[in-house]
Amino acid sequence: MTAPLPHTLGPPVVCAPLAVERRALDGDALAGVRLVRTGMGRRAAGTARALAVDGPRPVLVAGVAGALAPHLEPGDVVVADEVRDGTGARGPVAVPTARPLAAALRALGLRVHVGPVVSTPQVVDGDQRIALATTGALVVDMESADLAAAAAGGPFAVVRVVVDTPGAPLLRPGTPVRGLTALRTLRRAAPALRTWLDATGPRTVRLAEPRSFCAGVERAIEIVDRALDRYGAPVYVRRQIVHNAHVVRRLTDRGAVFVQEVDEVPPGAHVVLAAHGVSPAVRADADARGLSVVDATCPLVAKVHTEVRRHARRGESVLLIGHSDHEEVEGTVGEAPARVTVVEDEESARTVEVPDPTRVAYAMQTTLAVDEAERIAAILRERFPSIAAPRQDDICYATTNRQRAIRAVSADVDLVIVVGSPNSSNSRRLAEVAARQGVPAHLVDDVSELDLSWLAGVGRVGLSAGASAPDDLVDEVVSCLSGLGPVTVTATSTGSEHVRFTLPKEVSH
């Protein structure tokens, strides 16, 4: 049964402190949107109180501001991820939609920054500007902190265009020219502001369960963490330990050094082999360099390697269902290159040839879409009746479970978002499985890749994450959606996981 949508919002308002800012925004892009001149400085507080009387509504503050950070230039756009009250009378207001809004502005060709905006009762310069810059705020204005109240708990965003900088203060001869530049930029920004406004509204979010890290990924990450704890930095890792940019970045910050091949690792150093597995040739190269190897290959990938070796020893041809450019497939093929042929799709399955059709087996990449892989396997079984199948499913339990969950979620939503890096096979397969259910589905590395235009008119969103994506990235997407309007979060569970793999002896104690 479909969960009811939460309460509605009032009509949106775009707040522009000055008349020239309001005129810059008054065009086709914001046609039909209420544009309010709030007044400068503390006069905005009265406007905010008047707007808040009607209850929660989307409020977007747009105008010019003074730069605090030295790298900002006149005409640069700043999207607030936090609005601070420079008087200290109120706490900061978080703006969780900042990064998608910034992406929409960048798509217009604008130079955009994301960071804190601070509001002060008066124009600041000199020592005051320097002091505010030390707090990490990017720009200063005189209204945004007051106008946050206008949303009355509804969606709130701030977009400011730099007009003056520490090197070119407001009271200088060049200010009129810089002001015109800023106002032109503000007008150019209007379509992105409309995109944000159109994306606001109440909605439900259905979380797929299970999602995010599987046991193999957790094991691989823990191996690198423990290796760093035990041996100290640097610890080298061949390829990405798992296919997720955020995980790699965190481990890099800890002292892990990611390399393409083991010949980049200094002789005698410690090297971790990634979860996707490697060919025997890679292991031989590591031995030749005297490297201390810690093997983080997922046990389920290792099982496929074992199957391929067994079939090859028997003199059988192995048809490996998978993607030839994937690291897991490269490593598996390396177990018996003369006997393994990669079968990527149904057409390949219909045309592949083997020396002896009576001595053939098949195996699978562990991160394939279950339905697609089974169709390919069915063709192979029909063409080669005596083909040997895997003793147990090659597609890992985590891939299967996440695909089952995303199918269940996709049955009752308007849009599916899958969190995962683009080089993650299992994450891409989740988006493809959802799309095959007839619902628009998109893969995003994190919330910054969330396209606000996807959300216009969408009341129900399905959300999952690939087995290599941290769950905190899912939390950020939920937070962003909550920043666009009231959200009801439900979970669609198709099972639970309690698998845990043992660690290799090199890091287990």
Automatic annotation (TrEMBL):
One of its GO terms (biological process) is isopentenyl diphosphate biosynthetic process, methylerythritol 4-phosphate pathway. The gene is ispH. The lineage of its organism: Bacteria, Bacillati, Actinomycetota, Actinomycetes, Pseudonocardiales. PANTHER family: 4-HYDROXY-3-METHYLBUT-2-ENYL DIPHOSPHATE REDUCTASE. Its cofactor is [4Fe-4S] cluster. (2E)-4-hydroxy-3-methylbut-2-enyl diphosphate binds at H243, H276, H326, T366, S424, S425, N426, S468. SUPFAM superfamilies: Purine and uridine phosphorylases (SSF53167). Pfam families: LYTB, PNP_UDP_1. This is 4-hydroxy-3-methylbut-2-enyl diphosphate reductase. Its EC number is 1.17.7.4. Belongs to the IspH family. One of its GO terms (molecular function) is 4 iron, 4 sulfur cluster binding. Dimethylallyl diphosphate binds at H243, H276, H326, S424, S425, N426, S468. It catalyses: dimethylallyl diphosphate + 2 oxidized [2Fe-2S]-[ferredoxin] + H2O = (2E)-4-hydroxy-3-methylbut-2-enyl diphosphate + 2 reduced [2Fe-2S]-[ferredoxin] + 2 H(+); isopentenyl diphosphate + 2 oxidized [2Fe-2S]-[ferredoxin] + H2O = (2E)-4-hydroxy-3-methylbut-2-enyl diphosphate + 2 reduced [2Fe-2S]-[ferredoxin] + 2 H(+). Isopentenyl diphosphate binds at H243, H276, H326, S424, S425, N426, S468. Binds 1 [4Fe-4S] cluster per subunit.
